[in-house]
Amino acid sequence: MMPGSRLNTKNRVSLKTSVLTIVIHTAVGAQIHMRDRRGETALAIAAQRGLRPAVKTLIELGASIHTTNYRGTSILSNARKTMRRAKETGNDNFMP
Length: 96
What we know:
Layout (H helix, E strand, L loop, with lengths): L8 H19 L14 H7 L3 H9 L14 H15 L7
Helix pairs in contact: 1-3, 2-3, 2-4
């Protein structure tokens, strides 16, 4: 879900499914710090997409907020950039 998008029933179910999927995968041994080909972790991707429940779950499961991607950009830096852009365009209505 992108910043500012409406949170309808379908999105709520999708977010709950995402969080449940994260919990199940880590319970069976998935590595929480695995990276994609750009060096992004699941936490970085969830933060970029504005998936607060997934971000919260990943942090509770031990994901580090201090990692950087292969270009050296941190999760926090990307999150700040995304939030700034959302605020500038009026799309900063993140779900609670």
